[in-house]
Amino acid sequence: MRRTARSTTLTALIAGGALALTACGGGSSFDDDEPAGTAEPGTGDGTGASLTLLIGSSGDAETDAVNAAVAAWSEQSGIAASVNVASDLNQELAQGFAAASPPDVFYASTDQLAGWVANGSLHPYASELASADDFYPSLQENFTVDGEFYCAPKDFSTLALVINEDAWTEAGLTEADVPTDWDSLRSAAEALTTGDQVGLAFGPEYQRVGTFMAQAGGGLVSEDGTEAIADSPENIEALTFVQSMLTDGIAAFPSDIDTGWGGEAFGSGRAAMTIEGNWITGALRNDFPDVSYLVAPLPAGPAGQGTLQFTNCWGIAADSSNQEAAIDLVEFLTATEQQAEFAEAFGVMPSVESAGDDFRSTFPEQAAFLDSAEFAVGMPTVQGASDVIADFNGQIEGLRTADVEAMLQSVQTNMQAVLDSAG
């Protein structure tokens, strides 16, 4: 159990959950005369080499931090580099790839990876990095296609259980009652539910409910990525458990209690616990600074502990004429010290294990999120999986009264079709 300072940022972007890549502002192309963010260029290497970067930023703090890091590398290397902030990252990347003039380096998401690999847009460089083995294994898996480690994870987040300490005490619960399995989660939710507060709230989406599927030993795709497993007995057990908590009134979706996302439900006091990522610490600090809370790993299910993780990588374009410099820049941006600076600047968790101890000591309240990397699973990366998940999310909104088996059978059919098409 990890205590946090009374604490974060309530935005619709975060409410969507899965670390959206859509930029918050900036230029619309890589060749803008006045890019949204520009790193101070170096003096050049005498060959005219330069790099362009395209990022999807969560805000000024992230943009400023990336600019500062790129400027430091530029000064050190003598190679000019500019940073652009996309207004629609995936669209602008697609335009750049189509025109054979993409940025050299860019944020790349797991749901786009397989498509970009299939059409030859990405340069597979990650295994060349000196730090290749330092990335968390689950993150390496997220960016590996057909056995090839394509791009370096830039940072990540996991989901954990966030508990309101005041509500906990008022319910007569102690540290010994912090949930460690589904039974104790149900017991805690029952004890915390009152007339104006539900015990547990989480978003009506696979990006939250999928944690229970992982804890049951299920998921959407088999480990080898060839078979859909959505309608497995493990997933049926997981969603039936979630459904029972919803129907018993001890769990709720945020919209059921007049809130927009788990962080708002929790911060406003309408929910005593929520399942969220480490971005909630910033939202509580900014919007609900008087809420005292602690963060614990998600409780284990029948198959053990499980959570979901969300991440992006530093992609390098196959069409880049400066791949050697791009790799050197990514090496700089993913170094232990630089990742620690990013964590301090805009609240992300470092993707390299060597930065773990420093992160835990600097952000002890977030240690449970980082510790959860040991049992975290990523989102399916096969091309088209994101569309299947979007449809699944629409069905999860009606989970309280749904036919769980029928719901999962439809997901099974859709996911298998995607896998067959990719194969």
Largest β sheet strand count, sense and barrel closure: 11 strands, mixed
Helical amount: 25-40%
CATH class of the largest domain: Alpha Beta
- The number of strands is 13
* Ends apart, CA distance between termini: 43 Å
**CATH architecture tag of the largest domain:** 3-Layer(aba) Sandwich
- Count of helix runs: 17
By secondary-structure content and strand pairing, the structural class works out as alpha/beta
What is the helix/strand order?
Answer: EHEHEHEHHEEEHHEHHEHEHEEHHHHEHH
Number of domain units: 2
Strand content: 15-25%
Can you tell me the CATH topology of the largest domain? Answer: D-Maltodextrin-Binding Protein, domain 2
Low-confidence parts, pLDDT < 50 over ≥5 residues? 1-47
What does the average pLDDT come to? 89
Oligomer: single chain
Can you tell me about this structure?
With 423 residues, the chain is α/β, with parallel strands linked by helices. It folds into two domains: 18-157 and 309-373, 3-Layer(aba) Sandwich (D-Maltodextrin-Binding Protein, domain 2), CATH 3.40.190; 159-308 and 380-422, Periplasmic binding protein-like II (D-Maltodextrin-Binding Protein, domain 2). The protein is 40% helix and 15% strand. It has 17 helices and 13 strands. The strands form two sheets. Strands 1, 2, 3, 4, 7, 8, 9, 10, 11, 12 and 13 form an eleven-stranded mixed β-sheet that branches. A hairpin with a 2-residue loop joins strand 5 (144-145) and strand 6 (148-149). Helix 16 packs antiparallel against helix 17 (404-422). The longest helix has 19 residues, at 404-422. It is globular and about 65 Å long. The model is unreliable at 1-47 (pLDDT under 50).
